[in-house]
């Protein structure tokens, strides 16, 4: 006798952004459907609606949704990426005192009072969330609602993506059901857990001399140099060239302006198509330079060593002349989307500006990492 087919899971996507969680759900092949997406960001909502026109999108604050409205959605799973600014290393780290945590605290208040407790919860945030007061409140709520849970710190490099994007994840499952793996009170941590956001220094590319690297790129510490060389030699990670657009309609619009080159040359994280690493792209990419993401060397026959040889002794004009040989450019939004695992069909509407695209991608997540976690959660 055949077993009855499982009912399709009803998914609520909170802080839906540009739809990273929705794409991850599709990638996971879980028998599930997003019944509602909620976000207050009008630009992100425009992108979301462009890519998921048939999904109900609620453009309001989460705390503006009543308990009765939540109950009517009758959801089995919550996918969410609460605002990370209260916990990020470059913010004020005000934690629970930051007003941007208000909506998430409201969710924690609502959860025990729902008429039907959702069976699954997946949460994503920045590294730093795991040591916050807000995280402690989350765990207390999960315990009181009888969830089992597991926390992770994971980077896309674990799945072969040449991009460091270390993030905190939590999976929760309503008891008496259990996970398909052994849970632990310890955070499961794999991938790039150190030096995640360090942008000073360069990917060696074809420059093989460690002595030259240490001498030429004096902003690179020996530890970061070794880490980057290890990443670049890790054959389990794909080359950046696999994620690049084949033909750019207007590549000149992505080249780094001379003034920016001159000012930030020694802190740019320069990678080439054959590299197997890049640093985390943030929402300031393309607007701010230091600490916001890697830039691409598109000149195939020019080595960094010859450009930066005695660089500090050169005049500004000579420096620019040397730097121009590298043909440095920003990664395009499509390329960053590729590095985040977005499928080819993902598109930005034509009216979304380049700067807006970078900001939205900087606030997004790696789809394949989340897809793997959703798959683990529902097994």
Short description:
By secondary structure, this protein is α/β, with parallel strands linked by helices. 30% of the residues lie in helices and 14% in strands.
Q: H/E element string?
A: EHEHEHEHEHEEEHHHEEHHEHHH
What is the first-to-last residue Cα distance? 22 Å
**What fraction of the residues are assigned to beta strands by DSSP?**
5-15%
The percent of residues in helical segments reads 25-40%
User: What strand order characterises the main sheet?
Assistant: 3-2-1-4-5-7-6-8
* Biggest sheet descriptor: 8 strands, mixed
Poorly predicted ranges: 194-218
Q: Name the average pLDDT.
A: 89
Instruction: Tell me the number of helical segments per DSSP (H or I, 4 or more residues long).
Output: 13
Gyration radius, in Å: 22 Å
Structural class: alpha/beta
> What general form does the structure show?
elongated
Tell me the number of strands: 11
How is this fold's topology laid out?
Layout: E1 9-14, H1 20-28, E2 32-38, H2 42-51, E3 57-58, H3 67-73, E4 77-80, H4 102-110, E5 120-126, H5 133-144, E6 147-154, E7 167-174, E8 188-189, H6 210-216, H7 222-232, H8 258-264, E9 270-271, E10 295-297, H9 304-308, H10 316-324, E11 328-330, H11 333-339, H12 354-362, H13 367-378
Parallel strand pairs: 1-2, 1-4, 2-3, 4-5, 6-8, 9-10
Antiparallel strand pairs: 5-7, 6-7, 10-11
Helix pairs in contact: 1-13
């Amino acid at each position: 006798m055949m077993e009855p087919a499982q009912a399709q899971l009803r998914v609520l996507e909170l802080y839906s952004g540009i739809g990273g969680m929705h794409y991850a759900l599709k990638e996971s092949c879980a028998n599930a459907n997003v019944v509602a997406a909620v976000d207050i960001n009008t630009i992100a909502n425009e992108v979301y609606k462009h890519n998921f026109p048939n999904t109900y999108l609620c453009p309001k604050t989460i705390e503006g949704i009543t308990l009765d409205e939540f109950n009517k959605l009758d959801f089995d799973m919550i996918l969410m990426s609460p605002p990370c600014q209260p916990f990020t290393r470059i913010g004020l780290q005000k934690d629970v005192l930051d007003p941007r945590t208000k909506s998430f605290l409201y969710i924690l208040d609502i959860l025990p009072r729902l008429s039907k407790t959702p069976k699954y919860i997946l949460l994503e945030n920045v590294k730093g969330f795991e040591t916050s007061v807000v995280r402690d409140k989350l765990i207390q709520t999960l315990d009181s609602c009888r969830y089992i849970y597991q926390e992770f710190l994971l980077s896309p490099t674990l799945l072969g993506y040449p991009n460091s994007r270390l993030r905190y994840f939590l999976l929760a499952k309503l008891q008496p059901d259990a996970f398909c793996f052994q849970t632990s009170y310890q955070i499961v941590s794999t991938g790039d857990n150190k030096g995640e956001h360090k942008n000073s220094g360069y990917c060696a590319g074809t420059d093989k001399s460690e002595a030259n690297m240490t001498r030429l790129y004096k902003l690179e510490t020996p530890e970061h140099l070794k880490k980057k060389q290890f990443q670049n030699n890790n054959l389990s990670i794909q080359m950046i060239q696999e994620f690049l657009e084949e033909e750019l309609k207007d590549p000149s619009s992505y080249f780094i302006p001379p003034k920016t080159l001159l000012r930030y040359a020694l802190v740019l994280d320069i990678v080439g198509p054959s590299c197997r690493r890049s640093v985390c792209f943030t929402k300031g990419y393309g607007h701010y330079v230091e600490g916001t993401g890697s830039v691409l060397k598109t000149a195939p026959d020019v080595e960094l060593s010859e450009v930066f040889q005695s660089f500090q002794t050169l005049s500004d004009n000579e420096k620019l002349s040397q730097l121009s040989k590298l043909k440095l450019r920003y990664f395009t939004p499509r390329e960053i989307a590729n590095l985040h695992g977005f499928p080819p069909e993902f598109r930005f509407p034509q009216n979304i500006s380049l700067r807006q695209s970078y900001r939205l991608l900087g606030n997004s997540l790696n789809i394949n990492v989340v897809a793997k976690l959703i798959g683990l959660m529902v097994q």
